[in-house]
Amino acid sequence: MRDRFALTPERYALITRVALVAFTLIVVTGVAVRVTGSGLGCPTWPKCTETSLYTELNTHGVIEFGNRMLTGFVGFAAFAAFVGAYLRRPYRRDLLVLGALLPLGVVAQIVLGGFTVLYDLAPGFVMSHFMLSMLILVACVMLDWRARHEPEELSESARATSGDRLLTWGGWVLLALGAVTIFAGTAATAAGPHTGGTGTDDVVPRLTFKGAETLNFVIEQHARIAALLGVIAVALWIVARRRGVSRAGRTPLTWLCVLLAAQGVIGGVQYQLELPAEIVWVHASLAATTWLAIVWTVVAAGGLRARLLAPGATGEAAPAR
Asked: Which element (helix H / strand E) includes 158?
């Protein structure tokens, strides 16, 4: 039965790419829900209203309900990535482990999203919702990368980068600093005017740990950390170029530097224009893309290696009973 539905590595790699795109899109649409004030367009969960699974025909309800519907496609893509890893030939345990993280992430997001609505978009829940998405994207990138490279290629990449500690550790610094930058960005949104419920005239609590100065304080910290992230990314790109890393090998870092530069410009513009929703949406959506570039940089350098997911952890599965 299992051999009848066996997948080639190429077909499975296509499934992982679809899953990566789907999880990225759900983040982008989730940001749209936030900045358009449609977070409570469907005020209950799991139903949209107290009496119906569907939304009323209004803009905010459609945006929120559409985001929930997209979750169904994301769930299907996550399940396909997991099952596909089991059906792939040759079988690889590392892909099955990573594939399992995707449907688990979807379940966690559904539960957390439910609490976020039930607790009227409390800042802590909204911030956690976005940060969990970033964690799932890490698994998506790792799965997509490993699905496109055979164990021998992964081993060769690991050996090639194991002697360059500066680039390897630099990648880890980018990952940690990128996570802090995104967290600070979610805090800035949680303290700002885009509460997620303004479009439906719902009063949503904001972060106010520094009173009226909370928003300016968080934005300043976010900008400083992001600037440091950009400096380190450019420095690593220069180091990689001087140490003879090929243009293809520098591609993730190149994209990261370009995206960080764009984010700096957009962030400055949105601040000067007093945070218009459209630019905030672009800024937050690009944050997810920038995070993908950071993870891609680390994975491509062989930095995200663990004993559980070692390239040698391959082999045929036990026969199905």
From this structure: helix 151-162
> What is the rounded distance in angstroms from the CA atom of residue 190 to the CA atom of residue 117?
15
Please check whether residue 315 is in contact with residue 91, taking contact to mean a CB–CB distance below 8 angstroms: yes
Task: Write down the pTM of the prediction.
Answer: 0.83
Quick: pLDDT tens for 24-58: 999 988 887 777 765 555 666 666 666 565 555 55
119-124 — which CB contacts under 8 Å span 24+ positions?
120/40, 120/197, 120/202, 120/204, 120/205, 121/39, 121/40, 121/195, 121/196, 121/197, 121/202, 121/204, 122/204, 122/205, 123/190, 123/191, 123/205, 123/206, 123/207
Q: What string of DSSP letters covers 57-111?
A: SSHHHHHHHHHHHHHHHHHHHHHHHHHHHHHBSS-BHHHHHHHHHHHHHHHHHHH
How would you label 96-134 residue by residue, b for 16+ Cβ within 10 Å and e otherwise?
bbbbbbbbebbeebeeebeebbeebbebebbbebbeebb
